[in-house]
Amino acid sequence: MSWLRASDPPPPAPSAADPRDFLLPSGAAVTVRWVRDPRARRLRLIVNDRGVRLTVPPRAAERRAAEFLAEHGAWLEAQLARQPVLETRAFCADQDATLMLRGQALPITWDAGRYVRVEADATGVRIARPERATPRQLRSALKEFYLQEARRDVGQWLPKYLPGLPHSHSALRIRPLSSLWGSLSPTNALSLDLALVLGAPDAFEYVLVHELCHLVHRDHSRRFWREVEARWPHWRDARRYLHGEGLAMKAELRRCVSA
């Protein structure tokens, strides 16, 4: 899990990914997406629901990047072995009977309706849709549903933490993030990953606390972690949960709301 802060305004976009085969220590081959990113300051290897990515700073030599990848071959193989089997099929009205929300697979009741609408109730989730509703309309309604639920959670939690901070955040953005769970920009705009609402609420609240504590300390120093611990004593449990379940959460969100 990474806690990189976003810049504001957005920095230059990274170059297109260059997929290359890499031999793991066991002899198995895996595709690694090499991305030369003008924002990067160091070589970085990540494994997520999209596969393996090697981020290369603009001035880093290809030879050094290849050496870095080879040095981390055993780590990469171990990470890949731990990854869960992820569902890649797009969310479908004819096949999906449950929807993930706050760590639970809620049963779906499908209804007829004049337009696509997704709502949670005491029995689970109700999805209304006209007979000719398109997959795109369904994905859009699911995304809006998750946004509303995430905003509701954050709205309940924020009043507990803002009084103890030197100042408030300048804006709040909840959206799908690729590898981060949250970030705080130099202008104090707070970003949170929409996938968090699919998982345990404690983990979602922890990420919110983590980013709010960056309003006190911008780094990850001991002073920063003392601020986190004072507000969320069980932050290690939440972080372990995200390490274990985060990949599946991000993949499930993408399956539901992306083309």
Structure summary:
The protein is of the alpha/beta class and 259 residues long. The protein has helices at 62-71, 73-82, 135-161, 201-213, 222-231, 235-257, and strands at residues 18-23, 29-36, 44-48, 51-56, 98-101, 104-112, 117-121, 124-129, 171-175, 182-184, 189-193.
CATH architecture of the largest domain: 2-Layer Sandwich
Mean pLDDT: 89
Radius of gyration: 20 Å
Percent of residues in helices: 25-40%
With helices defined by DSSP (H or I, 4 residues minimum), what is the helix count? 6
Shape type: globular
- Which class best fits the helix and strand makeup? alpha/beta
Give the CA-CA distance, first to last residue: 25 Å
Q: What summary fits the major beta sheet?
A: 4 strands, mixed
Q: Any idea what the CATH superfamily of the largest domain is called?
A: Metalloproteases ("zincins"), catalytic domain
Portion of residues in beta strands equals 15-25%
Summarize the helix and strand pattern as letters. EEEEHHEEEEHEEEHHH
Q: Give the tally of structural domains.
A: 2
Provide the CATH topology of the largest domain: Zincin-like
